[in-house]
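Please fill in the sequence for the structure shown.

STRUCTURE ENCODING:
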């Protein structure tokens, strides 16, 4: 299975380099069962700067038992769960056409399976990654079947407690996939966004890439998630937030989606590498504003330095101020004029 850095869709959050944040445009069922509309949304995703698109592959007869019901947020959208999903199903041949479109647009093609039979269809589609929806983060048979595809497996973790996610973490680790912090509310209120959950996932599953599946209505949540450590983001894209259907209200229309992606890119650039170092634009201030060991009077070659000979002043081009005590007792190799920084080559045996 793919685990090395070359085969990763995204870098793990502890990389020493600037984070490469993948933005997944979650089309999901926002195509309303219309392959033409799905195609339009793929083009909109590419135009907005997304890195990948995601669709959902399901058949109601595979997924729903006789006891299945609508979620509260789906009430009024169909007579029952079967009717709702049946109207939103895309046939496998249409999915294959959409995959070809995604590849032509330079987009990664990611699909969510909801049943074991769907995973076999994913193999035929040759997806770039499999995405497991939050309700199935604890569905070990589905997780293991997805892992057997030999592709990265991305798992959303909405509704889950941390101690329920060991299998999801195992599969994400083994496949070079990711775990997404997620709140399964559509839309998610800001105070319930739970961005801090990414830190808990990173701590509990070291080395696994961590991201955020964003159901908030805000345009800046993606950027905030990047600042909190996300290296992959999933955001719903729709043609019309007011359209009837289960996910439109928690989605962004193309113009806002482009704004969202731009904010993510800016946040990633501002975050920079995961290390503390002097940045190139700081070099001038570094030299001008730091202080060096300076001599307070003219001193001749051979002089042995005492504390009374020395002070510290700007600029930081000589022996650093922190080494003041280290040069006491050292012998000068050549004369040094008063009020000048002491340099390493001024000292005997400096090398």
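FILLED IN BY: designer on duty
SEQUENCE:
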């Amino acid at each position: 299975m793919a685990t090395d850095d070359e085969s990763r869709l995204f870098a793990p959050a502890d990389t020493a380099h600037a984070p490469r944040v993948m933005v997944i445009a979650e089309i999901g069922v926002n195509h309303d069962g219309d392959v033409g509309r799905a195609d339009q949304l793929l083009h909109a995703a590419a135009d907005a700067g997304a890195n990948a698109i995601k669709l959902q592959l399901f058949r109601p007869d595979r997924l729903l038992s006789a006891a299945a019901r609508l979620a509260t947020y789906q009430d009024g959208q169909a007579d029952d769960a079967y009717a709702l999903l049946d109207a939103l199903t895309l046939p496998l041949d249409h999915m294959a056409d959409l995959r070809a479109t995604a590849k032509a647009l330079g987009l990664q093609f990611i699909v969510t399976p909801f049943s074991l039979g769907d995973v076999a269809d994913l193999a035929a589609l040759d997806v770039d990654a499999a995405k497991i929806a939050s309700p199935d983060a604890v569905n070990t048979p589905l997780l293991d079947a997805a892992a057997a595809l030999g592709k990265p497996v991305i798992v959303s973790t909405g509704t889950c407690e941390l101690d329920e996610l060991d299998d999801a973490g195992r599969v994400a680790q083994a496949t070079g996939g990711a775990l997404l912090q997620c709140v399964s509310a559509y839309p998610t209120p800001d105070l319930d966004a739970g961005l801090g959950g990414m830190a808990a996932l990173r701590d509990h599953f070291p080395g696994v890439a961590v991201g955020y599946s964003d159901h908030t209505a805000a345009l800046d949540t993606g950027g905030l998630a990047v600042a909190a450590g996300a290296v992959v983001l999933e955001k719903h894209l729709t043609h019309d937030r007011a359209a009837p259907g289960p996910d439109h209200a928690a989605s962004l229309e193309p113009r806002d989606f482009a704004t969202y992606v731009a904010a993510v890119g800016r946040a990633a650039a501002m975050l920079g590498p995961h290390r503390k170092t002097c940045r190139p634009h700081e070099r001038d201030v570094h030299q001008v504003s730091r202080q060096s060991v300076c001599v307070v009077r003219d001193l001749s070659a051979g002089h042995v330095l005492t504390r009374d000979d020395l002070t510290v002043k700007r600029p930081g081009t000589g022996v650093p101020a922190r080494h003041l005590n280290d040069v006491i007792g050292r012998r000068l190799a050549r004369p040094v004029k008063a009020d000048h920084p002491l340099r390493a080559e001024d000292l005997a045996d400096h090398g």
